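Please describe the entry underneath.
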Amino acid sequence: MARIHWSKDASRDYWDIVGFIERHSAAAALRLGDAFEEAADRLILYPELGRVVPEFHDRSIRELIVQEYRFIYRVEGDAVTILVLVHGSRDLWRRLPRGPWDIE
Protein backbone atom coordinates (compact mmCIF):
# COMPACT_ATOMS: atom_id res chain seq x y z
CA MET A 1 0.00 0.00 0.00
CA ALA A 2 1.23 3.45 -0.90
CA ARG A 3 1.32 6.48 1.36
CA ILE A 4 -0.29 9.62 -0.06
CA HIS A 5 1.23 13.08 0.31
CA TRP A 6 -0.04 16.36 -1.15
CA SER A 7 2.27 19.12 -2.38
CA LYS A 8 1.39 22.60 -1.20
CA ASP A 9 0.52 23.44 -4.82
CA ALA A 10 -1.90 20.52 -5.08
CA SER A 11 -3.55 21.40 -1.76
CA ARG A 12 -3.96 24.99 -2.88
CA ASP A 13 -5.32 23.80 -6.26
CA TYR A 14 -7.84 21.56 -4.50
CA TRP A 15 -9.27 24.37 -2.39
CA ASP A 16 -9.14 26.95 -5.20
CA ILE A 17 -10.97 24.67 -7.64
CA VAL A 18 -13.58 23.44 -5.17
CA GLY A 19 -14.09 26.99 -3.88
CA PHE A 20 -14.61 28.34 -7.39
CA ILE A 21 -17.14 25.62 -8.24
CA GLU A 22 -18.91 26.18 -4.91
CA ARG A 23 -19.73 29.77 -5.88
CA HIS A 24 -21.93 28.34 -8.61
CA SER A 25 -23.10 25.08 -7.05
CA ALA A 26 -22.38 23.69 -3.59
CA ALA A 27 -23.53 20.24 -4.71
CA ALA A 28 -21.18 20.23 -7.72
CA ALA A 29 -18.28 21.38 -5.53
CA LEU A 30 -18.96 18.57 -3.08
CA ARG A 31 -19.07 16.00 -5.91
CA LEU A 32 -15.80 17.26 -7.37
CA GLY A 33 -14.08 17.30 -3.97
CA ASP A 34 -15.28 13.74 -3.39
CA ALA A 35 -13.98 12.72 -6.83
CA PHE A 36 -10.54 14.18 -6.03
CA GLU A 37 -10.49 12.32 -2.69
CA GLU A 38 -11.58 9.07 -4.34
CA ALA A 39 -8.78 9.41 -6.90
CA ALA A 40 -6.23 9.80 -4.10
CA ASP A 41 -7.72 6.81 -2.26
CA ARG A 42 -7.45 4.60 -5.37
CA LEU A 43 -3.76 5.44 -5.61
CA ILE A 44 -3.15 3.91 -2.17
CA LEU A 45 -3.80 0.46 -3.66
CA TYR A 46 -2.91 1.13 -7.31
CA PRO A 47 -0.22 3.82 -7.47
CA GLU A 48 0.53 3.25 -11.15
CA LEU A 49 -3.14 3.38 -12.14
CA GLY A 50 -2.83 6.52 -14.24
CA ARG A 51 -1.04 7.11 -17.49
CA VAL A 52 2.42 8.65 -17.79
CA VAL A 53 2.07 12.42 -18.25
CA PRO A 54 2.99 13.01 -21.92
CA GLU A 55 4.69 16.35 -21.22
CA PHE A 56 7.23 14.76 -18.85
CA HIS A 57 8.22 11.43 -20.45
CA ASP A 58 8.99 10.19 -16.91
CA ARG A 59 7.35 6.94 -15.78
CA SER A 60 7.21 8.17 -12.18
CA ILE A 61 5.00 11.18 -13.05
CA ARG A 62 1.49 10.03 -13.86
CA GLU A 63 -2.04 11.40 -14.07
CA LEU A 64 -5.63 10.48 -13.61
CA ILE A 65 -8.39 12.41 -15.33
CA VAL A 66 -10.95 13.46 -12.72
CA GLN A 67 -13.93 15.00 -14.47
CA GLU A 68 -12.23 17.69 -16.57
CA TYR A 69 -9.16 18.01 -14.33
CA ARG A 70 -5.70 16.48 -14.60
CA PHE A 71 -4.78 14.93 -11.24
CA ILE A 72 -0.99 14.74 -11.58
CA TYR A 73 1.11 12.74 -9.16
CA ARG A 74 4.55 11.18 -8.70
CA VAL A 75 5.23 7.60 -7.60
CA GLU A 76 8.42 6.97 -5.62
CA GLY A 77 8.62 3.53 -4.04
CA ASP A 78 5.67 3.21 -1.69
CA ALA A 79 4.95 6.95 -1.68
CA VAL A 80 2.57 8.82 -3.97
CA THR A 81 2.76 12.59 -4.04
CA ILE A 82 -0.10 14.57 -5.55
CA LEU A 83 1.77 17.32 -7.40
CA VAL A 84 -0.82 19.53 -9.07
CA LEU A 85 -4.48 19.63 -10.12
CA VAL A 86 -5.08 21.52 -13.34
CA HIS A 87 -8.05 21.94 -15.66
CA GLY A 88 -7.55 19.92 -18.85
CA SER A 89 -7.86 23.04 -21.03
CA ARG A 90 -5.02 24.86 -19.27
CA ASP A 91 -1.36 24.85 -20.28
CA LEU A 92 0.38 22.54 -17.82
CA TRP A 93 3.79 24.17 -18.28
CA ARG A 94 2.45 27.57 -17.22
CA ARG A 95 0.86 26.02 -14.13
CA LEU A 96 3.95 24.21 -12.79
CA PRO A 97 6.02 25.72 -9.97
CA ARG A 98 9.34 27.27 -10.98
CA GLY A 99 11.27 25.49 -8.24
CA PRO A 100 11.13 22.04 -6.61
CA TRP A 101 7.81 20.61 -5.44
CA ASP A 102 7.00 21.69 -1.88
CA ILE A 103 5.66 18.55 -0.18
CA GLU A 104 3.53 18.69 2.98
